[in-house]
Amino acid sequence: xxxxxxxPDNWSIIEEDFDANRVESSESLFSIGNxxxxxxxxxxEHYSGPTFxxxxxxxxxxxxxxxxxxWKNGYPEYFAxxxxxxxxxxxxVSVNGEQLDLxxxxxxxxxxxxxxxxxxxxxxxxxATLKNNIVIKVETKRFLSLDADELGAxxxxxxxxxxxxxxxxxxxxDSGIANKDTNWDDKFWDTIKVSHENxxxxxxxxxxxxxxxxxxxxxxNVFINDKSVLIEPNIKADANYASFSxxxxxxxxxxxxxHKYGGxxxxxxxxxxxxxxxxxxxxxxxxxxxxxxxxxxxxxxxLAIWERADITIQGDVKAQQxxxxxxxxxxxxxxxxxxxxxxxxKGFTGxxxxxxxxxxxxxxxxxxxxxxxxxxxxxxxLEYRYNHLEKAIExxxxxxxxxxxxxxxxxxxxxxxxxxxxxxxxxxxxxxGAISFAIYNYYRYTGxxxxxxxxxxxxxxxxxxxxxxxxAFSKDKNKYxxxxxxxxxxxxxxxxxxxxxNYLAQWCINYAMxxxxxxxxxxxxxxxxxxxxxxLLETELQAWKTVADNMYxxxxxxxxxYLQQDGFLDKELVTVADLxxxxxxxxxxxxxxxxxRSPYIKQADVxxxxxxxxxxxxxxxxxxxxxxxxxxxxxxxxxxxxxxSIQAAKLDRMEQAYTFYLRTSRLDLxxxxxxVHEGLHITSMAGTWMSIVEGFGGMRIKDDxxxxxxxxxxxxxxxxxxxxxxNSIIKxxxxxxxxxxxxxxxRALQILVNDELVTIEPNSLVxx
Length: 768
Description:
globular; 32% helix; 33 strands; 5-stranded antiparallel β-sheet; 25% strand; 10-stranded antiparallel β-sheet; alpha+beta; 20 helices
């Protein structure tokens, strides 16, 4: 834990007392989004202190030319940058000619910022003494609409406390923005036109290179003590900017309010010639409905999400706050409305990493979306990869593979690889395995085989072809080996025979062959269509089988564990417990060379494989591997604590499981890795959900049935969650001495509880 200023609360993220040193961290933590757009929690008014301004539009990116010290053949030509979009939230405020700026105020008291997760809004309240000695009370609230996902709304109130005052609200649009994350300081946006009429303003802009056309828009109206005031604004506009100034004499104790509506219209959804007219329609409807009714609709929309997705924890407020924060941010980032979109690792909270899709989606996010939403949402995420299959084949061809071998990208926006670190781009090929595993995971959970026979088998075949070609035969070992890779543990690059990668390769080939045989036997028409398309011959299948049957796995007889890779035992095996706290995190304190020579593990690697394929290993084997590898793991990846929490719970090590749960659930809230100012770790938040549902709840699929082995930390009185399993909603409530199961629907369901068959009748309670 590296920060502790967020107040414990069951439903809100709360900050009290203004501190300029934590503004950028709070801008991340209090971020808001609606799946189509999002923004960091920047102040609406001007702020001259350190700040990371950021607003983002889903799916809009810039191909920033790769910048490396030494170019290597095969490098992606660009790194896709999440774009800081034109700013619509800004409202300059002046009081008797003095600009409101919290960084320069004489005094700021009663500061309180709240992100209300239950209702989906962000607020700030404070009292400020300006340099001209005017004291004002400020109350703001804003949200991004879930119903109209192109729209956001702001309410900004000012009350003069110690005298009458002339107050000017100056809402504005600004396309003269820049990315914090850029390789060459390129200009990412080209402003086409700035226009305004009545109380509306529009900035039409397009991205350089990718030519995404957007319209950023706003409309404002003002009130005194909740009564509308008609003010003809003073208008300013230039090549990248438009503002309206609403000046009013406000008596001491009166409240001057502005409602500002704004957002983005994008040509991904509309013809680019219609963007302004569509924006006008959105604004007309927003003003007609009004701020209060829009807010009411926002609360209702979030209530519907929480009805399905909420996890309750009794007796531990910090744990409760943590899981709801994670669930909230996942839903702000991706709602499954648009199959062209995916779940970026920073969501709408920052620019680091770039791209919109990592292997995190398949490994961590799909289980969350399968269980908390309709299965169609998870299927959309699988179809996203199918739609990029041809690009994956092109990616493999660039590296010398052929015959339809597919290498899905580590980072992508459109299916093309756009990550510019060679040890990731070329070597972290385990992402292919996560995609195959997600197809398997979807089928075993939903029972929906239609995706595999319609689309998924082509993906499985492309991936199997890649693994067969990527493996090389070692005469010395008389086995197939996979050389020069990076596993999930990125603190070891360019290693040979990473166990996790080799195991995935074998599994992927076998799973592809299993489904080829199944479709041939059960769906002959689909089999013919697919085989005619992929031109798969029996001789090639035999080559696959030879590789899979003879894959090499490094193993230590001394320690009775699979080795992370060849040579792991050659390292000086000093555990994390013997590493000085001053050296942590090592990725910020050590040279990369020193990290690579150390035994320290960034995240679960061998244990990731045991998580995916736990049915293929005994509990005793898991315990041995957990005891061997966890002491070397520094958990400096956000994806690490959740897997360890799940496995510690399986091993009945509940105190350890609870500690890992707190770390994953409060990774950002408590800033464990000293980096929250850069943005949140969105995809790992799905792992936090898994640590409760799969870890403590013990949820699995066994014998084609939903199975639970419930456990509960001693720190909790009870916890509950719901899952949507094959269109039946099951609520699980775990207490210290019992577990209750309830079923919503109209048909009975058989489940396994502690390996015993239990039948739940609709709308009834079963206690175990």
